[in-house]
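Annex B. Sample input.
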Amino acid sequence: MDMKNHSFQIIAKTMFRLLPVQIILAGLSSVNAMVSGLFASNMIGAEAMSAVALYDPITKLLTAIATMLTGGAAIVCGKHMGRNEREKMQGVFSLDMSLAGLISAVMAVVLFVMGSFGLTGFLTGDAVVEPHLHQYLIGQAVGVIPLLLGIQLSTFLSLENRMKRTVIASVVFIILNIVFNFVLIKVMGLGTLGLSLASSLGQWVFFLIQLQFFFTKDAAMHFSAKNIDFSETAEIIKIGIPGALSLGYQTIRGLICNNLVTATVGSVGLSAYGSCNSFLGLIWAIPFGMVAVSRMLISVSVGEEDRETLVDIMKVVMRKYIPLQAMVSLLIILAAVPLTNLFYHDPADAVYMMTVWGFRILPLCMPLSIICMHFVCYGQAMNKQVYIHTLSLLDGVIGVVLFTALLISSMGINALYAANVLNGVITTLYIVGYAWFMNKNTSVRMKDLMVIPDDFGVGPDESIDISVNKIEDVIKVAEKVQDFCEEKGMDEKTAYHAALAMEEMAGNIVDHGFKKDNKKHSIDIRVVHKDEDIILRLRDDCIPFNPDERRKLSDPDDPASNIGIRMIFAMAEEIKYQSILGMNVLTMRV
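Annex B, continued. Sample output.
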């Protein structure tokens, strides 16, 4: 197999292995919105559905805060992972949880005060809907703290490769959310207050199930005040804020568009839009899950200054993620009428056809949004501040608000739907136009669209990529490593040591990893010439195998015990092992 294609396949396999859990995580709030929408429209009334829709900008704001913290912390932590700086990883975890706890406590108080004292005039002036909104805010205030903290823990559990715990917490949350809604609304008759309390109680359970892991000895990350480096707060915010600003801009966009729809179409338009969003939130979990996976891999690749893997990640997005999302969007469009029947049952009602058209138009923006979200994520990791702030502002406010304002008088609620699609077109054109301007050419190759700085990593002539699929490949790899070192002017001793180190460690992975299960495995090897050193990196998806731990298990009475590993540790300048996102990564400098 061609090595470039093999590297692409390894990255694709890893991204799709991590994707299901991230979709579940991203879909939690969407499941909550879907359940709330169904109970609101079928058991309480259209006024409750309007309250859910009016709360959506606040949901965006809370999500923006969570995104800022998780996005920044994940990238900073991923960079420390790429450099094997474990204490700094611990400090980032502790700092992130502290910030999330403080901010969520403040937000909980704000929502409770807004609901208790009726401070919602900037959200709606509808006297019929206002009492429902006030109750909804009070109930949601109860769940803000576990919501923000639970999102942080989900990210760190992924980095710990403990995603099964999050899956369990997610399933429990979904089940309890339905049960709580039924009990609080149907049995206890709490109406809109019960609607919001149900999701809040579910959030507490979700948070506590995840939290338990970080008190066990298996956790690499524990809360430790002494390891907190408050100077990293600025970096977390700086990196995370563009993604958060995008959602923050969407909060502003939601407020403006809600007022436009109310003034032109009426509250019936909000009910239709809210119904579509309550279901489509489940589908949006797919793009959000995709970008969550990519964020983790991109951050590690930036830490390693791995140019080729960065390009491969974005290629997977274009070749596999977007076609997958396009097929899902098509299915939603074809099922527009049955989906509408989940919320409304009389085709003669104006809200019915408004909802149908929402399901027919809104899904078209999703594939385009994947492009925008991933380039924002990449720009965050590479610290391209002007680029990502411009893209976030364009995506978050300007596109949708502008097109909605221009079209709503002639198209009604369909203007808002169409504006979301046109917004995706505009952001994609900006990404391409920016690359053409910076590169002074019209290339559409991925590495050119990404505009990777020339001084990032090493050039293609300073590295080689090799694949090991069976034990017979190991000797050939050693020969290629030695030839590469000699071509780069390394002395004969260094070239021999590099080849020997590669042969020993690759052989150990085949012996101890390939044969432990019935799955097909391979080793992705990269050899880099940088700063007069040879850096060897081996990456595989076998069971965890730390050569340093194996070296320490050597029998002192048996000089030959693990002699190969001990010899490599003696000759190498530096050897680092880490388990990242279910992959073993071994780096040696000789």
